[in-house]
Fold Dehydrogenase/reductase SDR family member 11.
Amino acid sequence: MQWTKEKLGGADVLVNNAGVAPSCVLHRFRTENIRKIYETNVIALALFTRDFVQDLRARGVDDGHIFHINSTAGQSIIHNRGIYPYSGSKHAVTVMTEGLRRELVELESKIRITSISPGLVRTEILEVTGLTPDIAKQTYDTLPCLETKDIADALVYALGTPPHVQIHEITIHPTGEDFRSLL
């Protein structure tokens, strides 16, 4: 935020897109894995969002837009051992997004906040979480998945709506996704 203020005079749009999902089986997880999940997916998002809102208000900007790139894992419990802590972190993002929206309404602010919750997206997240490139590729080639452009297009849509329109949530699933295997 400091760099943005110094070099650009501030930003009016924030996209919180960082996320990690190391395998974290609840009965035998490594402490650093669960810390990494919550420090990245929840705490960093909260800190950046707080600082962004404070900067907007200090600059007298009342029509900024905050995007939290969330996950469908934050809308239900995905039956996949090792992903429950990630899902919990995304549930926290869902609650924090709605909580901030309500706080902004109480402040009579016109700052908008949108949660974009995609299903599986072809990114580097599987490799970052420890899968080999071959297994990650096999996963993406086997399961229906979204492309990063799909998420960017949704963000651009929400950003382009008139100031009186608040898009709370955009949920995006890849065509052909078998929900039964996820729930």
